[in-house]
Amino acid sequence: MRLILLVAACLLSWTSWASQNMAIDGKVIDKNTKQPIPGVSVYIPELSKGVVTDIDGSFSLSTIPDRTFTVQFSFVGYGTKTQMLRPSDRSNLVIELEEAVSNIDEVVVSGAYIMSKESSPIAIEKVSRDAILKMPAPSLMTTLTRTPGVSEISLGPGISKPVIRGLSFSRVLSVYQGGRFENQQWGADHGLGLSETGISNIELIKGPASIIYGSGAMAGVVNLIEEADALAGNVEGDVNLRGYSNSLGYRTEAGVKGASENGFVWSMRAATESHADYLDGDGTTIGNTRFNTQNIKTGIGLKKNWGDTRLRYTYLKQRLGIVDEDDLDGLATTRNDRAMQLPFQDVTDHFLNSETNVFVGEDRLKATFGLHMNNRKEIEDDMDDIDLGLRQTNFMYDIKYFKELTEGLEAIVGVQGFYLQNKNMVEAEEILIPDATKDDRSVYLLLNYNKDKWVAQGGVRYDYRKVVADASAPNLIDYGFILPGDPADRRLERVFDGVTASAGTTFRPSDQWRFRLNVAQGFRSPDLGELFSNGPHPGTNRFERGNADFVREQNIQTDFGIRYSQKDFSISGEVFYNHIDNYIFFSPTAEMMGDLTVWEFEQADARLYGGEVELDIHPRSARWISGSTSYSMVIGQRRSDMSYLPYIPAFRWNHSLDFKLKDMGALHNPYISLTGALVFDQNREAPLEDATPGYYLLGLNVGSQVLIAGKPMDVYISGTNLLNRTYLDHMSLFRPFGVNQMGRNVALNVRIPF
C-alpha cells in the first residue's frame, strides 16, 4: 500500500515535469500517382491520439512529447503503414501508401512495447472489430477460432474459453482494459466472461508471455483493446443490431463517445443479448443451451501535454443454461423459450479500472489499477437455492517505467501485484473449494532494441505467490469440508516463487522477408481448484479432488517463423516446441462418491509441438479478388510414456475466397466472401478419451455500406455451417455425451453510425 501511495504522489508531482510540446506534421500521398489521400487515419496508439488527413492529404498532431513513437497510417483500400517517428527529427513528413487488398502489418500493443506486428519477436495475431461484425458468433471465442493456432473449449455457445496452441484453462491469461481479468476461469464449465462490447480489436499472443503478464500467461494472452477516443471536438455514436437464425438470438448494442478541445474524453456503451436453445444439424433441439447477457460500460478521461489518464467501469451480467446429460430430452422445451431452467449459472462482474500515462522528458511512466468483483452462482436443484456460490474480489496493479537508454534501445522496469480473495456464499448448499486468498507480487526488467533491420527483446522476472486456504468459516465446518491432510487449524498455506527469462529477435532484411525467433520461459502456479477442490461441482455431475502438493508448471517454448511477401501474395510459416514440466491435467477415476464419478487432477511432464502455415493471395491484376488459406496443427503428449494429452484440438485447414464488387447505386464497397474449415479426424486421443471424426464447415459472408438519405449504414449477412452438418467437436465438453454442435446459422448485423 505504501508503494501505491508513493506512486500516486509521483503521478501528481511529475505532471510539472512535462516535456516540451511538439508536433508531427505531414502529408499522405498515393505511392504511384503521388496524389494526396484525404481521410487517412493517422494514429499514435501510445497516446490514444489521432487525426484524419484533410482534402489535401495533410495532417498535424500537436502537443506531442519529444520521444520516439510508433505511428500508424491506415485507409480503406491501402496497405497499413507503421513508422517510428520522433517530433524533433521529422517535420513536413511525406508518407506514401500503396493500394492493397489485404494488410499483413499493423500496430500491436500486447507485447509491452508498441510496435509493428511484423517487427514483434513475439507471435501476435490481431482480430479486428470489422472481422467480428462481418462474421459474428454467439460466443466471442468462436470468432477468435478462425485465427490459426487458436481454438476453444466450450459448453454450448454461451460458455467457452480460449485454447492457444493446445493449452487452455488457467494457462491463457485474459487482459481487459490493460488489467489482468480473472473470474473463476479454472472451472471447466466457466467461460471467458468477456464480451465484444466497446472493443476495437482483440490481440492474441501465441506463446508464453509470463515475462510481461505473470502467472497465467504460460500459453499466451487474449487482450481486448478498447475502442479509440472520439476526435477532439466531436461526438460520435453508433447502434449495432444483430440477429441469429439458429438460436433465434439477438444482440443490441449502442454507444456514444465524445472529446472536447481541451482534452476531456468520455464514453458510454450498453449491450443486451439473448439466445434460445440451438438446433444441431439434424434439427434436434439441444435443451438448455439458452443464455442471456447484459453489459454496461462507461469511462471518462483527460488528455494533456503531460500525458493522459482514464477511469472506466464495466458491468456484465450472464445467465447461462447448462446441458444436463442425464436429462437431455427433458430440457428441450418450445422453440423460442428463453426462460431459465435448471441447471444454470448466474454470473455478475463489476470491473473498475484506471490507466495513467505520464511523460517525464523522453521517458514514460504507466500505472494501471483494477478492482474486479465476481459473483458466481451455480443453481442445479431448485430455483430458490444456490448450489455453488462464490464471491471473488481481485485488486491488481501494474506500474512500469519506460526509459530510453540510447537511440533504438529502451528499457522497462516494473512491479506488478494481484490480490485475490475468494469466499463461499453462506447460503451455498455445496462447497467445492475453500475460502482462500492469493497474493502475487513481482518485479521485472525488459529491454527492447529496435533499429534498422533488427528488433531484439529480452527480459527477466521474479514472482512470488502466497496462497492461503481457510476452511474455518462456520458454513464450511457445518458442511464438513476437509482440506488435504485435515490440518487442525483448518488452514493451509502454499508459496510459489521463481525467476523466468525470455529472449527473441526479428530480422527484416528487406520488405519481402521477415524472420522471427523467440525463446520464452513461462510458468503457472496451480489454481485454487487444482490445489484444494474436494466436493461436487454442480452442473457437471462430477466430484472433483485437487492436490495441495502440486508444484508450479514451468515451460520453455521455442518459436521460429518466416514470412515472404510480394505484391501479389504472402506466405508465412511458424513452428514451435513447448517443453513443460509438471503439467496439470484432469481425468476421471474408477472411484464413486455417491452417484458422482470422482475426477482427480494429476501432474506429469509434457510436450506440445506443431505450427501454422498461411498463404494470402491478392493479385494486382485483379484487385477485386483475394484469398487466403491456413493450416494449423498441435500434438500434445506426456513425456513419460508419449501417451496423448486430453483436449488437444484436431488439425485444421481454413480457407477463404473474397470478392470485392463495384458500387451499385446506394451500395458502396459491396463484397462476397466464401469461407471453409476442414477439421481433421482427432485420433490422437488421450487415455479414457474417445477419438472424434473430422468434418467440413462451409460459410458465406456478404455485406455493403448502404447509403440511406445520404447517411451510411453497414449491413453484414453471414452464414455458418451452410451444409447443416451434424458433427461433434473434440474440444466440446458436450462431446462425451454425444451432444452435437450448432447446425446451419445465418446472422444479420446492421451498424448505424451517428
Question: What share of the residues lie within helices?
Answer: under 10%
The first-to-last residue Cα distance is: 44 Å
Percent range for β-strand residues:
over 45%
| Rg result | 26 Å
Low-pLDDT ranges: 1-19
Backbone shape = globular
How would a textbook summarize the main sheet? 22 strands, antiparallel, barrel
Mean pLDDT: 90
User: Which structural class best describes the helix and strand composition?
Assistant: mainly beta
Number of helices: 6
Q: How many strand elements?
A: 40
Family: Belongs to the TonB-dependent receptor family.
InterPro entries: Beta-barrel_TonB, Beta-barrel_TonB_sf, CarboxyPept-like_regulatory, Plug_dom, Plug_dom_sf, TonB-dep_rcpt-like
Organism: Belliella kenyensis
Domain TonB-dependent receptor plug: 117-221
Can you tell me about this structure?
The protein is mainly beta and 754 residues long. Helices cover 5% and strands 55% of the residues. The chain has a 22-stranded antiparallel β-barrel. Strands 10-15-16-13-14 form a five-stranded mixed beta sheet. The longest helix has 13 residues. The two termini are 44 Å apart. InterPro entries: Beta-barrel_TonB (IPR000531), Beta-barrel_TonB_sf (IPR036942), CarboxyPept-like_regulatory (IPR008969), Plug_dom (IPR012910), Plug_dom_sf (IPR037066), TonB-dep_rcpt-like (IPR039426). Keywords: Cell outer membrane, Membrane, Receptor, Signal, TonB box, Transmembrane, Transmembrane beta strand, Transport. It is found in: Cell outer membrane. It holds the Pfam family CarbopepD_reg_2.
